TrEMBL record:
Gene Ontology terms, MF aspect: actin filament binding
Ranges for the WD repeats: 54-95, 185-226, 230-271, 488-529
Biological process, per Gene Ontology: actin filament depolymerization
Domain of life the protein comes from: Eukaryota
UniProt keywords, alphabetically: Repeat, WD repeat
Protein's UniProt keywords contain Repeat: yes
Gene3D superfamilies in UniProt: YVTN repeat-like/Quinoprotein amine dehydrogenase
Database matches in CDD domains: WD40
Gene Ontology, cellular component aspect: cortical actin cytoskeleton
Lineage: Eukaryota, Viridiplantae, Streptophyta, Embryophyta, Tracheophyta
Name of the protein in question: Actin-interacting protein 1-2 isoform B
Keyword Repeat: yes
PROSITE patterns to which the protein is assigned, alphabetical: WD_REPEATS_1, WD_REPEATS_2, WD_REPEATS_REGION
Length: 554
């Protein structure tokens, strides 16, 4: 049985307060690329549900760039390594180089696609390196910085130049290749967060935490202008991006605003438009990343909201969407509307998704406790955390009511609610299960084996318990006790997830060896077995999507 991936709900870029993030794009495909954890995410701006994820970095990925022809991506990580891989054909790896001794913050391709310059942290004076993309051979020496280098830019026209900037407040200019230090500017009085060349290479701009943007000649690095303070940013400027025609720039700031600037003939910048991004005005609405790609102006907030404006209609409200920034710990489908999914991450965020649309909203909880497992019924969500408590929370639209907490005395491993009798909840713990009716513990049952997963049937008459030994135990529920009916032995690893099919004729189980088995409920015989070879797919506490999507496709 073959299955076609229909849509992907992407994670948001990893952000850090007080620092910008540098996203990039491919003008040919209208796609952007960014990083989260060890993953590199490619998203099509025309269809944000068209998402590809590269997950082969061994360390947290920090920055990624499309090659000039859009066929390759160079992505870097916290170890100082750069991986070059194809955007098609299963992301075939072309090369991998250890470029710096520590985290890489920015990298750029040369316009001919033959060289890459990367910068970041390092030992001694090794904060910047340029190399041939196919051999890793050095193409110059980059002296002149004494602290972490946050950004670099490669002049897109001949004669080639490289500009770097960083935490030492310096902006350094190099000629080549092979590149050699030419001169340095100290016009900024704080971290210089981003530097970018205009598309024609005639000038470049640097932006800083001193709230200034300064424009330089692209060939000589002579200072020729700056962004006006009139109507300017009142907080650190974290990122800058040029319009395709080189006449405008987009900036984002800790003051929670994005601004479009006219670069006049005298090479100074005047505010053309201040863009209003959605949000409540809190710290999470600080803007930390931006990109101007064709007609799209993209901004990223500290809280992980991506806003897309149209250059052709800047007065139009942006398309805004968000998602998880931390590992998803649980996923559930609303029985009353199977097109609606709720997902939770361990940081306590619950996101509502709609099939065919994607991101809908973040549920507003009064108590932002961590979440390990999540279940939902008509107007109630039930969560388990890392504090040994089960919480029943009423749900009204996007607002959550007061939480009713039940301390079960042990760490919950899994959580399941009887959808047709939602008072009944089954919580698995190491030694067995805890049965709840409403907010009351009615029984704690020691099963005699290490429990790793559980599911209760919608009518509340049956429970399936999975163990560390790979066995599935089927119980009938009699009052507040369990009566064992059968033991199924097909899995070769610890059971990590169990789910009933929507029509209740089947159930599916997954294990830590990336194998899923679909069982006929009446005969208790195997119906289908699916194995997943990818190391990135594991049926554990935070990857229920495969089983849920399988049921949705039936």
């Amino acid at each position: 049985m073959s299955h076609e991936l229909l849509e992907t709900y992407a994670c948001m870029p990893t952000t850090e307060r007080g620092r910008g993030i540098l996203i990039s794009g491919d003008a040919k495909s209208n796609s952007i690329v960014y990083t989260n954890g060890r993953s590199v995410v490619m998203m099509n701006l025309q269809n944000p549900l068209n998402v590809s994820v590269y997950g082969d970095h061994a360390y947290p990925a920090t920055v990624a760039r499309f090659s000039p022809n859009g066929e390759w991506v160079a992505s870097a990580d916290a170890s100082g390594s750069v991986r070059i891989w194809g955007t098609r054909n299963d992301f075939v790896l072309k090369k991998e180089f250890r470029v710096l001794s520590a985290r890489i913050d920015d990298l750029q391709w040369s316009p001919d696609g033959l060289r890459i310059v990367a910068c970041g942290e390092g030992k001694g004076k090794s904060f910047v390196r340029a190399f041939m993309w196919d051999s890793g051979t050095n193409v110059g020496e980059f002296d002149g910085h004494s602290r972490r280098v946050l950004s670099c830019a490669y002049k897109p026209t001949r004669p080639f130049r490289v500009v770097t900037c960083g935490e030492d407040f310096l902006l350094n200019f190099y000629e080549g290749p092979p590149f050699r230090f030419k001169l340095s500017h100290r016009d900024h009085s704080n971290f210089v967060n981003c530097v970018r060349y205009s598309p024609d290479g005639s000038k470049f701009i640097s932006v800083s935490s001193d709230k200034k943007g300064i424009i330089f000649d692209g060939n000589s690095a002579e200072k020729i202008g700056e962004l006006s303070s009139e109507g300017g940013h009142t907080g650190s400027i974290y990122a800058v991006s040029w319009s395709p025609d080189g006449k405008l720039v987009l900036t984002v700031s800790a003051d929670k605003s994005a601004k479009v600037w006219d670069i006049t003939e005298d090479n100074n910048g005047k505010v053309k438009k201040t863009l209003t991004c959605p949000g409540t005005g809190g710290v999470e609405d600080m803007l930390v990343g931006c990109l101007w790609l064709n007609d799209y102006l993209v901004t990223v907030s500290l809280g992980g909201t991506i806003s897309i404006f149209l250059a052709s209609d800047l007065d139009k409200a942006p398309t805004a969407f968000s998602g998880h920034m931390k590992n998803v710990s649980s996923l559930t489908i609303l029985r009353s509307n199977p097109r609606v999914l709720l997902s939770s991450s361990y940081d306590g965020l619950i996101v509502k998704w709609i099939q065919g649309i994607g991101y809908s909203e973040k549920l507003q909880r009064k108590e932002n406790s961590q979440i390990k497992c999540l279940a939902a019924v008509e107007e109630e969500i039930v969560t388990s955390g890392f504090d040994n408590k089960i919480r029943r929370v009423s749900l009204h639209g996007d607002q959550c009511g007061d939480a009713e907490a039940i301390d079960i005395g042990s760490q919950p491993k899994d959580l399941s609610v009887a959808l047709l009798s939602p008072e009944l909840a089954l919580v698995s713990i190491d030694s067995g299960v805890v049965m709840l009716r409403g907010a009351k513990i009615v029984s704690t049952i020691n099963l005699g084996f290490i429990v790793t997963a559980s599911a209760v049937s919608p009518d509340g008459n049956e429970a399936i318990i999975g163990g560390q030994d790979g066995k599935l135990h089927i119980y009938s529920i009699s009052g507040d006790t369990l009566v064992e009916e059968a033991v199924l032995e097909k899995h070769r690893g610890a059971i990590s997830v169990i789910r009933y099919s929507p029509d209740l004729s089947m159930f599916a189980s997954g294990d830590v060896n990336r194998e899923a088995i679909v069982w006929d409920r009446a005969s208790r015989e195997v119906s289908t077995t699916m194995s997943f070879d990818s190391q990135s797919i594991m049926f554990n506490d935070f990857s229920l999507m495969c089983l849920l999507c399988f049921w949705m496709c039936l």
